[in-house]
Specification:
Blueprint: H1 4-15, H2 19-26, E1 27-35, E2 41-42, H3 44-56, E3 58-71, E4 74-85, E5 90-102, E6 105-120, E7 131-132, E8 135-136, H4 140-144, E9 153-155
Parallel strand pairs: 1-6
Antiparallel strand pairs: 1-2, 3-4, 4-5, 5-6, 6-9, 7-8
């Protein structure tokens, strides 16, 4: 049985700003979430608390779906999300979440995330460049397609 309806509903909830509702609805009691090389966070309560603390620390957050693939009980979701921290710093994260679902709930999710900090600079000829330490940054976003920042910002 495909979990595509649940995955699409989770995406809809997240894109509409209802991240904690998505967690409540779709995370299993023993969900294990692992980000990059960090140790996994295991358990519904632990994951909910971690995510609530992160979302609660932000001034603004916007998730955008780039792509999704669902096959059987596994899904791969590519998100790009922009957020602003309480101190006004802006970030863009490009994340791929590889998920395994059991009985209609998320069982495991491993994510790989690339984070950029945006610094507002004058828009030169309507273009922007991702730069880090004087070098152009090769990112997953560039690999899957051009990412344009309409505010004319540069990633550092």
């Amino acid at each position: 049985m495909s979990i595509k309806p649940q995955v699409l509903d989770l995406i809809s909830l997240v894109e509409s700003g209802q991240m904690l509702e998505a967690i409540t609805k779709y995370y299993g009691e023993n969900t294990a979430m692992q980000e990059n090389v960090s140790p996994p966070t295991v358990g519904f309560a632990e994951n909910y608390a971690r995510e609530a603390a992160f979302y609660g620390s932000l001034k603004a957050l916007k998730f955008n779906l780039v792509s999704v693939v669902v096959e059987g009980d596994r899904a791969a979701i590519n998100w790009v999300f922009d957020y602003t921290t309480a101190d006004g710093k802006q970030y863009r994260m490009d994340e791929i979440a590889i998920q395994t679902w059991r009985d209609g709930r998320l069982s495991t999710s491993a994510t790989s995330t690339i984070r950029h900090r945006w610094l507002s600079l004058p828009n030169v000829a309507g273009d922007w460049r991702r730069v880090a330490g004087g070098r152009r940054l090769a990112t997953l976003g560039r690999a899957i397609g051009s990412m344009r920042n309409p505010s004319g910002c540069v990633s550092l």
